Amino acid sequence: MTTRPPLPHRGRAWLLGIVVPVAITAAAWAVVVALLPRLPDPVAVHWGLTGVDRTGTVGELVTTSAVISGISLVVMGALAVLTGRQALTRRMVLGLAVGLATLFAGVSLSTVLTQVDLPTAEAAAPPDLPMTLALVAAVVLGGLAGAAAGSDPAQPATGGLAPGTATADLPEGQRAVWVRSVAGLGPTVTWTLAVVAVLLGAGLWLLTDTVFPVVVLAPIAVLVLTMTTWQVQVDARGLTARGTLGWPRQHVPAGEVERADVTTVRPFAEFGGWGLRTTVSGTVGVVVRTGEAIAVERSGGRRFVVTVDDAATGAALLNTYAQRARVTARHADDRGVTHD
Amino acid sequence: MLIRIDPSSPLPIFEQLAAQVRQAVIAGELASGERLPSARDLGESLEVNQHTVLHAYQLLRDEGLLELRRGRGAVVTAHAAEHYEPLLAALRAVRTEAAALGLPLSAVAAMLTSEETP
User: Fold this and answer.
1) Which is it for the CA torsion B43, B49, B51, B52, positive or negative?
2) Binary contact (A235, B35; C-beta < 8 A)
3) Which of A91, A235, A268, B113 could form a disulfide with A149 if both were Cys (CB 3.0 to 4.6 A apart)?
4) Residues of A with CB under 8 A from a CB of B
């Protein structure tokens, strides 16, 4: 294996992966500790459908959330510092680091705030509202952290295409585009799932008299459904994969392609699931079904995989444009023009 | 679907585009109901004016091959490929006859495009 260049945006990784989550957790726990003397004894530790259904010691109330917070800080901090070669991985890890820290801090705070200055634990209302606020705050702050994680710096590929790389038969002067849709689930299955999800959400809402599960599940359902169908396109600008609504979008510039090949993907074994995935080794994958796929070796030791039919045609055209992008870049160098 | 254009060809670019989309439908590469890239997207990809792409799409709409809908872009018409079945059958017959006569297909093409052929 060749040595890989250092990971980009390490300052932001330390800040958003460790400093901010630790600060959020510390602030929340400072408030929790300050409020502990004002709690009833025993305290409510669990709420059921009809209110408080279990009481216990203060230790019982705070230990679990403290342990979960701590584990989350360590795991996400380690992932933030050790991974993040590609923008998607960085955004997901740093977004999750801040989001989870906010969520767990919010949950700890909620269970304490709802019973401050109460005479008995049984009088404590279920902490639905503060929990919902904590969830919203977690999503918003996590999203902001993901947005601030930084896109990949431009890294033009150097050197020629590897010998034996298949290219398209496209004479100089001609232009081409390759477009192909790939669906993990057919439209019938997709709509059936959507209807079942709506009924399930409505049923939960009516049965439990709380919107909480619906608030959590609805965005996840929408996100999952947008990830089942993708359009893959190769043109002079490079390879682009877009979700159903044009988002999420993954783009590999032609100038950053080392080589593109046809491969066979088993999503569950290689990526642990379907959809837009990342692996610990730093591969980003749009994998919606088992089988034929384009695998792109990118500059900077990055790798991108997309499952799509007729992958050979797409890969060959991408190689052709990768070659043309280098020729253009070299001409710019010859004229003394800097390109960015 | 692979679409290539050759700016040095005497054939106008919108005709080059239309011919290749048509071919993709006939070959079954584009299925009924499949959505084509928007005229703007395809124009940007091929570095041609989006009105050129729209021109090609309109040509194919008039043939009944595509449906153009505001906001939804171009969609392949249901059973679009079947519309071409009689023409394809006729073409196969033409090829057989031409081979029997020893006539090159370029000569047949000239007869097809010539106004005088009965």
Assistant:
1) negative
2) no
3) A91
4) 170-171, 173-181, 231, 233, 235-237, 313, 317
The tens digit of pLDDT for each residue in A28-83 reads: 999 999 999 999 988 998 887 778 888 888 888 889 889 999 999 999 999 999 98
Residues A149 and A85: beta-carbon distance below 8 Å: no
Q: How many domains does chain B have?
A: 2
Calculate mean pLDDT across residues A192-219.
Answer: 77
Q: Which residue of A has its CA nearest to B17?
A: A176
Q: In which domain, by residue range, is B47 found?
A: 13-78
Residues A204 and A210: their CA atoms lie apart, in Å, by 8
Band of pLDDT at residue A336, cut at 50, 70 and 90: low
Q: Is B62 on the interface with A (CB under 8 A)?
A: no
Can you tell me the distance from the alpha carbon of A33 to that of A4, in angstroms, rounded to the nearest whole number?
A: 46
With a threshold of 0.90, tell me whether the complex ipTM lies above it: no
**B43 part of a folded domain:** yes
Distance, in Å, from the CA atom of B118 to the CA atom of B110, rounded to the nearest integer, reads: 13
Between chain A and chain B, the number of residue pairs with CB atoms below 8 A apart is 49
- Asked whether residue B109 falls in the same domain as residue B58, the answer is no
Could you read off the pLDDT of B33-86 as tens digits, one per residue? 888 888 988 999 999 999 999 999 999 999 989 998 876 678 888 877 788 888
Q: Tell me, yes or no, whether B73 and B97 share the same domain.
A: no
